[in-house]
Amino acid sequence: MKPDSMKKILKISALFGLIFLAFCVHGQDKQSTFDRDSFYKAMQINKIDFVNDVLNQIRDAAIVGKEAFEGALTMKKAGLSSGASKKLKIFKSGHQKLEEAIQKDPSNVEYRFLRLMIQENAPKVLGYKNELEKDSEVVRKGYKTLPEPVKQAVIDYNKKSKVLKLQDS
């Protein structure tokens, strides 16, 4: 092989190496963009712009349980949207994601907490209240296993919940 050919191959290899490294670093940045505190703040407040921002962070993040978080926040977004048919369409898409996540991991306390919050606040006409008691029980029993930001979200939600009532556990 000629020395010029060898130099070209080395340059191309170095270029591909840099491109690969850039993708790896970019992937790590995406993973760090998910912030549970922001997620739970978005679940509490009624500001669609903030909800959309956090939804975009979740969609870009490489996290376990992305479907559950995206589903719950999408259902929250449905309540902030206008137009009955649009609300229903958005709600159904979020519902499907959250329920699939729970079906894959039914003992996940955080997913059950997400569903509890949505069920308790969903309009009765949607008929999405069947698992309130079960989810409440799972959250009460598994509360101590949750990460700190989730524990704080449960405590905050417990103050206004008619179903959760942590002192019962």
Write a concise keyword list for the protein shown above.
single chain; 169 residues; mainly alpha; 2 domains; 8 helices; 73% helix
Structure commentary:
The protein is mostly helical. It has two domains: 1-32; 35-168. It has eight helices and no strands. It starts with a helix and ends in an 11-residue tail after the last helix. The model is unreliable at 14-18 and 20-32 (pLDDT under 50).
Provide mean pLDDT, rounded.
86
Number of domains as seen in the coordinates: 2
Which structural class best describes the helix and strand composition? mainly alpha
Helix content: over 70%
Order of helices and strands: HHHHHHHH
Number of strands: 0
Low-pLDDT segments, ≥5 res: 14-18, 20-32
- Helix count, DSSP H or I runs of 4 or more residues: 8
**Quick one: biggest sheet?**
none
Gap between N and C termini? 75 Å
Spatial extent as radius of gyration: 21 Å
What is the approximate shape? globular
Beta-strand residue percentage: under 5%
